């Protein structure tokens, strides 16, 4: 069946329908990872977005147990070529069947290099995937321009508190759209991890007397999370050690008076270089974000830049002055990788008074 990808600038790509055949309107973003398509599909940070995979062949090892959450979150999926015969000893099914099960519309056979160049040059834009060959641009384009991602943190967070038992430090993890490997990375280091829904009050978290607090990744515009930001400010004032990733990093910055802005086309993939400003060492990182903290608007009496993106100079981390708090824009829990910055979890353990 034919499918069409229509961008809000009027560009139309024609391909083959994969997955669900329903119409889909979303923000179109691209990911440069060469592997890990299942982790991308199950990353809650992609809620409200449709993902273009720049790597040309997707699905060659099928669906494996490597999910980062219980379901898929992107609104749509766009690939150059879809492998019809996956081969892997862990394979549990095909990606096309998985997309149908998850009711996610997709399109294959698209020139993803040309599409990515458009998104790089013009910036991230909204788009529609449809199988309706009688579509009318004059009716669709106004709908695309009106689309907003909205409050997706509420959509992706856990429904209730739960605990991963451990004998080490007690960590409260605020689930803003957390990837499974964040809790797993802490649990593997012996921590008892209590996962809280995104709208949990600071008072409830603090009253449990955690040794440390983890703020997770998540989707959407950080400035929209006004009620969560107020609670994070209380956590900042508590003097409990805090480690924050991605959206959590942005929300901590907003809670302490900084600002954020939307990138032209974002950082998404497993090959982004970041420099540790303390050691000048460069790490390859996994990233998935469309917004960044404005480093020039960070009060140096509150926080100082800790990491910087080598490609474009944007902020990739903050160290908070006089506080046991550090935050990063990238993903040290990267799954499937790279694992270069996994040592940050060890730093967090040490900050809580533990050992590696």
UniProtKB/TrEMBL annotation:
<dbReference type="GO" id="GO:0004088">
    <property type="term" value="F:carbamoyl-phosphate synthase (glutamine-hydrolyzing) activity"/>
</dbReference>
<dbReference type="GO" id="GO:0006541">
    <property type="term" value="P:glutamine metabolic process"/>
</dbReference>
<feature type="binding site">
    <location>
        <position position="250"/>
    </location>
    <ligand>
        <name>L-glutamine</name>
    </ligand>
</feature>
<dbReference type="GO" id="GO:0005524">
    <property type="term" value="F:ATP binding"/>
</dbReference>
<comment type="pathway">
    <text>Pyrimidine metabolism; UMP biosynthesis via de novo pathway; (S)-dihydroorotate from bicarbonate: step 1/3.</text>
</comment>
<comment type="subunit">
    <text>Composed of two chains; the small (or glutamine) chain promotes the hydrolysis of glutamine to ammonia, which is used by the large (or ammonia) chain to synthesize carbamoyl phosphate. Tetramer of heterodimers (alpha,beta)4.</text>
</comment>
<dbReference type="InterPro" id="IPR050472">
    <property type="entry name" value="Anth_synth/Amidotransfase"/>
</dbReference>
<feature type="binding site">
    <location>
        <position position="220"/>
    </location>
    <ligand>
        <name>L-glutamine</name>
    </ligand>
</feature>
<dbReference type="InterPro" id="IPR017926">
    <property type="entry name" value="GATASE"/>
</dbReference>
<protein>
    <recommendedName>
        <fullName>Carbamoyl phosphate synthase small chain</fullName>
        <ecNumber>6.3.5.5</ecNumber>
    </recommendedName>
</protein>
<dbReference type="GO" id="GO:0044205">
    <property type="term" value="P:'de novo' UMP biosynthetic process"/>
</dbReference>
<dbReference type="InterPro" id="IPR035686">
    <property type="entry name" value="CPSase_GATase1"/>
</dbReference>
<feature type="binding site">
    <location>
        <position position="45"/>
    </location>
    <ligand>
        <name>L-glutamine</name>
    </ligand>
</feature>
<keyword id="KW-0547">Nucleotide-binding</keyword>
<comment type="pathway">
    <text>Amino-acid biosynthesis; L-arginine biosynthesis; carbamoyl phosphate from bicarbonate: step 1/1.</text>
</comment>
<feature type="binding site">
    <location>
        <position position="218"/>
    </location>
    <ligand>
        <name>L-glutamine</name>
    </ligand>
</feature>
<keyword id="KW-0055">Arginine biosynthesis</keyword>
<keyword id="KW-0028">Amino-acid biosynthesis</keyword>
<keyword id="KW-0315">Glutamine amidotransferase</keyword>
<dbReference type="GO" id="GO:0006207">
    <property type="term" value="P:'de novo' pyrimidine nucleobase biosynthetic process"/>
</dbReference>
<feature type="binding site">
    <location>
        <position position="291"/>
    </location>
    <ligand>
        <name>L-glutamine</name>
    </ligand>
</feature>
<keyword id="KW-0436">Ligase</keyword>
<feature type="active site">
    <location>
        <position position="333"/>
    </location>
</feature>
<dbReference type="InterPro" id="IPR002474">
    <property type="entry name" value="CarbamoylP_synth_ssu_N"/>
</dbReference>
<dbReference type="Pfam" id="PF00117">
    <property type="entry name" value="GATase"/>
</dbReference>
<dbReference type="InterPro" id="IPR036480">
    <property type="entry name" value="CarbP_synth_ssu_N_sf"/>
</dbReference>
<feature type="binding site">
    <location>
        <position position="247"/>
    </location>
    <ligand>
        <name>L-glutamine</name>
    </ligand>
</feature>
<dbReference type="InterPro" id="IPR006274">
    <property type="entry name" value="CarbamoylP_synth_ssu"/>
</dbReference>
<feature type="active site">
    <location>
        <position position="331"/>
    </location>
</feature>
<dbReference type="InterPro" id="IPR029062">
    <property type="entry name" value="Class_I_gatase-like"/>
</dbReference>
<keyword id="KW-0067">ATP-binding</keyword>
<dbReference type="Pfam" id="PF00988">
    <property type="entry name" value="CPSase_sm_chain"/>
</dbReference>
<feature type="domain" description="Carbamoyl-phosphate synthase small subunit N-terminal">
    <location>
        <begin position="1"/>
        <end position="130"/>
    </location>
</feature>
<comment type="similarity">
    <text>Belongs to the CarA family.</text>
</comment>
<keyword id="KW-0665">Pyrimidine biosynthesis</keyword>
<dbReference type="GO" id="GO:0006526">
    <property type="term" value="P:L-arginine biosynthetic process"/>
</dbReference>
<comment type="function">
    <text>Small subunit of the glutamine-dependent carbamoyl phosphate synthetase (CPSase). CPSase catalyzes the formation of carbamoyl phosphate from the ammonia moiety of glutamine, carbonate, and phosphate donated by ATP, constituting the first step of 2 biosynthetic pathways, one leading to arginine and/or urea and the other to pyrimidine nucleotides. The small subunit (glutamine amidotransferase) binds and cleaves glutamine to supply the large subunit with the substrate ammonia.</text>
</comment>
<feature type="active site" description="Nucleophile">
    <location>
        <position position="246"/>
    </location>
</feature>
<feature type="region of interest" description="CPSase">
    <location>
        <begin position="1"/>
        <end position="169"/>
    </location>
</feature>
<feature type="binding site">
    <location>
        <position position="290"/>
    </location>
    <ligand>
        <name>L-glutamine</name>
    </ligand>
</feature>
<feature type="binding site">
    <location>
        <position position="288"/>
    </location>
    <ligand>
        <name>L-glutamine</name>
    </ligand>
</feature>
